[in-house]
Amino acid sequence: MIKAILIFNNHGKPRLSKFYEHYNEDTEQQIIRETFHLVSKRDENVCNFLEGGMLIGGSDYKLIYRHYATLYFVFCVDSSESELGILDLIQVFVETLDKCFENVCELDLIFHVDKVHNILAEMVMGGMVLETNMNEIITQVDAQNKMEKSEFFPFFSFSLSLYRRLSFSLPGRTGRHRQKNVSYCHV
Amino acid sequence: MALKIVKGSIDRMFDKNLQDLVRGIRNHKEDEAKYISTCIDEIKQELKQDNIAVKANAVCKLTYLQMLGYDVSWAAFNIVEVMSSSKFTYKRIGYLAASQCFHENTDVIMLTTNQIRKDLSSPNQYDTGVALTGLSCFVTPDLARDLANDIMTLMSHTKPYIRKKAVLIMYKVFLKYPESLRPAFPRLKEKLEDPDPGVQSAAVNVICELARRNPKNYLSLAPLFFKLMTSSTNNWVLIKIIKLFGALTPLEPRLGKKLIEPLTNLIHSTSAMSLLYECVNTVIAVLISLSSGMPNHSASIQLCVQKLRILIEDSDQNLKYLGLLAMSKILKTHPKSVQSHKDLILQCLDDKDESIRLRALDLLYGMVSKKNLMEIVKKLMIHVDKAEGTTYRDELLTKIIDICSQSNYQYITNFEWYISILVELTRLEGTRHGHLIASQMLDVAIRVKAIRVFAVAQMATLLDNAHLLTGNMQRNGICEVLYAAAWICGEFSEHLENPVQTLEAMLRPKVATLPGHIQAVYVQNAAKLFATILKNQEGNTDSTAAQETSQMMIDRLPLFVQSANLEVQERASCILQLVKYIQKLQQKDVEVAEEVSALFAGELNPVAPKAQKKVPVPEGLDLDAWINEPPSESESEDEQPKAIFTKEEPKHSRPRHTEVDEKELARRREARKQEQANNPFYIKASPSSQKVYQEAPGVEHIPVVQIDLSVPLKVPATTPSHPTGLPMSDQYVKLEEERRQKERAEKKKKEKKKRKEKRSGRGKKHDSGPESEEDITPAHVVDIVTEEMPENALPSDDDDKDPNDPHKALDIDLDKPLADSEKLPVRSHRAAGAPKSSAEDGEAENATPQEPKKKSSKEKRDKKKDKERDRKRSKEEKKKKKHKHEEKEEDLLGGQAEEPVVQSEETKEVEAQPTSTSAEVSDLDFWLSNAPVPSNTQEAATVAEAAPAPEAPAGTAADSEPEEPKDTETEESKSSKHKKKKQKKEKEEKEKKKKKKHHHHHHHSDGGGEESVQNGTVEEEEPLPPMSNYCLLAENSYIKMMMEDADQVCDIQGNLQDGSQVVVSVIFENKSDSFLKSMEFNVLDSLNSKLQRPEGSGPHDGLTVPFQLPPGVSNEARFVFTVQSIVMPQKLKGTLTFIVKNEDSSTHEKLDFKLHFTCTSYLITTPCYSDAFAKLLESGDLKSSSVRLEGVNMPFHHLLARICFHHHFSVVERIDSCASMYSRSIQGHHVCLLVKTSGQTVSIDAKCDEPTLLGNVLDEIKQTFSQC
Questions:
Q1: Residue B209 and residue A1: Cβ atoms within 8 Å?
Q2: Where is this chain's protein located in or outside the cell (chain A) (predicted)?
Q3: H-run or E-run covering B229
Q4: Contact A84 B274 (CB under 8 A)
Q5: How far is B317 from chain A (nearest CA, A)?
Q6: Residue B202: its chain A contacts at CB < 8 A?
């Protein structure tokens, strides 16, 4: 089971938080802070698993994270999840975001957190992995967006051109992930 | 800002969407909180508007603010409003907001039930999807109960997108509403073989999650998962399954043996690291479960260790980490294989990655030996010095202590070294583990007698330098070690070199700044020390020294008397008075030392931590019994209100305490225990602790592990200040090395001698080689006093499970057939049944979830549940079969000879209908005993074996001895062969009774011994009278035939396409004393109905009944008829011929009978949902008809149950005294009933698309009720 999915930036600003177990808002913020604290002080070249988050989980839980450019993607999972599988899932998530936002950057996540939630909802449901196939996820997300558009809703203009693109690096494109075969699962 | 306020028109608000909000927050970095609070005010305004678009926009913004930590629960109602918008866009916003901030205590959740239900059944799959996603985050027990049925229906949705979501969410539903697990499980299991890989994966996911918590209930699924594992190519699914097997193998070692081979293959073949890793993990789990008595798995272990080494050596830190993690699992059972990779693991200790170092530390635990302990600890000590974060350092510290103290200090050869390590550890700053170090010091000093001299000296130094430690005053801080130091110095003060100096150190004014509990120990041990000093000094001629000591005590103690800590104060004032008194005596030159030291005489023995728990309760002592009966008044008053609600009959409401039966007493006792457990002031009864000491023999009798000392004890001079050069422990390492070398040298000498002696005889025998583990003798000391246990200590089996674990409620046996009471609540019934069920819940609070319903349910059965019933029976049969195996092996062999012919057909049927393959334990046994990996055919056979004949009706059983195996009668023979005795016996008895009474009904004779079936859809009110559909067919002096009136169609799946089959079950009972054999069943076919005969036989040939009947035995056979028209009832004439065999003679006999095919025989119980039902009625295709029954004198629910049972209907909806019912014919005719009752009159309005059929059915219903 996945207990929580957190995305925050290099300064600990939350960009998305999804808890699959109820906490009150203060605890949630505390968890985000603590997780950021744990994750941010780690070097780039260490493993992506972390034990010992006090607030969330316990001995059975692990933090599994990946760091892309300015953002940390952190999954808090228990022992029933495969560690490498979750790493791949994060990768699928980010690649899906990249496809859906067309070259995703942090600003996309800042201004369209609802969209990110919708994408995430097609991958993980109630703490369980729902779908790992990127094409399937994108198909469903697109279909729903199309439906939304057909209903005509003036408030949400998804004009992204206003924002300057940040180089939001995806593995394979920059940095350490280029030389590394990141996929453990071949999903 | 100002501009906004000016422009604060609705239009402006319209403009401010989520993006504007985010931008605004980013532009107000300075006064973010203020800005947000104005935004929240705006949002509140927006929420007040009627425009749903404005509301949705507001809710969307709130969701964002929630992420930033703002409580938005005040808007819960608005969220519900947005959720119920008909537009998908808004709906999605609403559900997202709800999933982010709703939880179990959100009260508006109650309002959502109907909305969610509507969305779930929406024709738009994304409405359904969004509702499912949202629900997965905020499902409550109430929602789970109310929606379980709807979600279960969605599991069979046409769209895989919905199916997979519905499957996943079922897990959440199970968690919140455990009762739903059993009814829903068959369908969940079905989804394991869903054609869509996503759905399959979801089902695997859910079952793995369930099985992880309660693996034993899922063992029976092992064959299915095994099949999936060997066939699936989806790595996600494989990983889950393999993880699941890891959880199952500890329960069933045979499973492990089966798994090893395919797993090994996967390990060799897969290129996905994640899969490889999980395979290795599960192989490890298997090896652990097999660790006893399976010697030939060393290859597998080697393979695992090898693969793990590859992982650990990988440059990818993630793989390294996981490799170490898995390695530590092997370590537990196969330490040797891991130890050979010590180099690698020690190398990981130096890794820059803390996670990896921690994992390596875990492994060290198993790496140590007597030989390398010092070396490893030395390395760790270096890490301790270098460590930056306190967490890692603390981890190191605990690991050092763990490693050293493991298995009773097994690896420590030199305790002086260990004590000095502990002392060195006290110099760590900011550690949280002072307490741990202190307890180690105490433990070693108490249990290792010979080290006490050394320990006391070290502790005295510590006390002297206390100022170095007291910097850290926080609890558990390092000053805790002073607690240990003071106690050791006091308790073993006879070993002190300079007791006066230590006493002085203990009474320093600075001590008063220590935590209270430490001061208390100081004061108490100062007194002990004082006693020792007196004893030493009194021997001297100079009495002034003693008096000076007393004076010092008197001077210093008042400081502690003023302590704010009660304990310190109390002890100090007590001791102060004592010393003053002693001083008085001293001044009179009275010798007091003896008496003073008598205060602290005797030695404390270490007692095992669990000793107290293990003291057996003496025979005859009932700890739960009352000492004084409590006043019954108050107790009964507590009872009363409950009783009023649960039982309404006035006769029960008389004062209850007059008749307190056993059960009631037990219940009360339970309640009392509960109360006591929750009452912190209640002192739990436990055997007195004194007893332990009373019975304990003296110190001499404590078992002591004596280890011979070859080297005399060395106590190097202790330096009071910090040793300058090497840390002290290193000095000991050196000493120890020297000692070992010496030892080795001595040994070699000895060996040389030996060899010389032997060389003359046999020549070289063996080289001593490198020092082996056993060669190292401990340096000294080491009487490890084992901890005391009470006599006849009880073996403890306390596994402390968390009682609050939600998964506990899901520990449900899934192999048991569904009871009819176990149904998911259907909406229409909730209205009527809700209050009751909650009352029931209260009553059956302690009942196990497996049997959630009342006893009465046992007596009620429904035809509808034939399937389940059969499953149960077949299970019994299985058991019987096992039994029989011993007695009647020949028979069975005879029977089996016939089976294979049947199986192929059975298999097909089973495959088409996976629900019915409720694999049982016995089947699992079978599967497991099939040692090699089953090929397809084998597996098919297994499944066939496992499958109970899906719709075999009520079972009668007797020894089945197919006489002529050549005559193969497809299904009938097979199923009847399965019948075994158990139920039949009851039946016979009843039958006999009946006979005595001469009740020979022809139709619908109630009260047959057949297990009656309850109608699950009817509310339970009173026990229903037992019902049976078996009626007497024909009887003569030899044989009796009971017929279940033309039971359902044969093939449930294909009945609509091929809706022309009716199965007749006939029970043959031998009433004579003779043996009946060669029974032949024949029916004169009519134009409409034909008995199905095996191919090749003529239209008038009889069917051989596939068994013989010994005297008094009965058995059941089933015959299939093909029917063309089903609108009219029919009668068929038939004959049974058989041979009666006595000891000397045999005669041919014959019995005529008439088979009556009623129209209800053609109906199949089919569940129908109320909405579908309503649609059906509206459709207008149905012709209506009605009937009135007068003088029906039975409760309404009995009436319904009767209709359900005898006429194969199911209740769609029931409101008060009105119910709608539904059934369907084998040819697909819909039959709808509306049953109303008022007084003794029952009116039934019926609709059906076939009026003739309807008329006949109604006539039959009328007849049923006219008979009772």
A1: yes
A2: Cytoplasmic vesicle membrane; Golgi apparatus
A3: helix B222-231
A4: yes
A5: 5
A6: 128, 130
Predicted confidence at residue A181, as pLDDT, reads: 39
Tokens in use for B998?
């001469």
Asked if B277's CB is within 8 angstroms of A85's CB, the reply is no
Q: Scanning every residue of chain B, which has its alpha carbon at the shortest distance from the alpha carbon of A186?
A: B272
Contact yes or no for B1080/B1103 (Cβ under 8 A): yes
A52, B87: Cβ pair inside 8 Å? Answer: no
Helix or strand or coil: residue B1127? Answer: coil
Burial class of B572 by CB neighbour count within 10 A (0 to 12, 13 to 18, 19+): buried
DSSP line for B901-928: HHHHHHHHHHHH-GGG----HHHHHHHH
pTM (2 decimals)? 0.56
Q: Residue A25: CB partners within 8 Å, gap ≥ 6?
A: B66, B69, B70, B71
3-class secondary structure, B1186: strand
In one letter, which amino acid is B980? K
Helix (H, G, I), strand (E, B) or coil at B1191: coil
Are residues A114 and B93, on separate chains, in Cβ contact within 8 Å? yes
Question: What three-state secondary structure class fits B1047?
Answer: strand
Contacts of B854 (CB under 8 A, 6+ apart): B821, B840, B844, B1020
What is the number of alpha carbons within 13 Å of residue B778 lying toward its C-beta?
23
Please provide the DSSP assignment of chain A as one string: -EEEEEEEETT--EEEEEESS---HHHHHHHHHHHHHHHHTS-TTS-SEE---SSSS-TT-EEEEEEETTEEEEEEE-TTS-HHHHHHHHHHHHHHHHHHTTS--HHHHHH-HHHHHHHHHTTEETTEE----HHHHHHHHHHHHHHHHHT--TT-----TTSPPP----BTTBGGGTTS---SS--
Tens of pLDDT, residue by residue over A54-97, are: 566 677 788 999 999 899 999 999 888 899 999 999 999 999 99
All residues at 6 or more sequence positions from B127 whose CB lies less than 8 Å from its CB, including other chains: B88, B91, B119
Residues of B whose CB is below 8 A from A87:
318
Q: How many CA atoms lie within 13 A of A92 on its CB side?
A: 26
Q: Collect all residues of chain A within an 8 Å Cβ-Cβ radius of residue B318.
A: 47-49, 83-84, 87
Q: Where do we find the tokens 């070690």? A: B481
Q: H or E stretch including B488?
A: helix B480-491
- Measured between beta carbons, which residues in chain A are less than 8 angstroms from residue B320? 47
> A184, A186, A187: best mutation site toward chain B, by most B Cβ within 10 Å?
A184
- B272 CB neighbours in chain A (<8 A) are 184-186
A25/B66 Cβ within 8 A: yes
- The DSSP call for residue B1062 is E
Cβ-defined contact of B53 to A155 (cutoff 8 Å) = yes
Q: Is B162 in CB contact (< 8 Å) with chain A?
A: no
Residue B636 corresponds to which tokens in the numbers above?
A: 């009964």
Structure tokens at A176: 């350490």
Query: B1219 in helix, strand or coil?
Result: strand
User: Quick check: A51 and B71 CB within 8 A?
Assistant: no
More confident residue, B692 or B534: B534
CA distance B64 to B72: 10
For residue B842, what are the CA distances in angstroms to A6, B646, B856? 41, 9, 17
B705 in reach of chain A (CB within 8 A): no
Tokens at residue B343, please?
């180099």
Instruction: Quote ipTM for the complex.
Output: 0.87
* Angle made by CA atoms B902, B904, B907, in degrees to the nearest 5: 110
How far apart, in whole angstroms, are the C-alpha atoms of residue B1105 and residue B193?
37
Three-class SS state of B871 = helix
Closest CA to B327 of B314, B344, B351: B344
Q: Which of B18, B164, B274 sits opposite A130 (nearest CB)?
A: B164
Mind listing the pLDDT tens digit for each residue in B437-475? 888 888 888 888 888 889 999 898 888 887 776 655 554
- Could you give the angle at which helices B141-154 and B125-138 cross, rounded to 10 degrees? 150
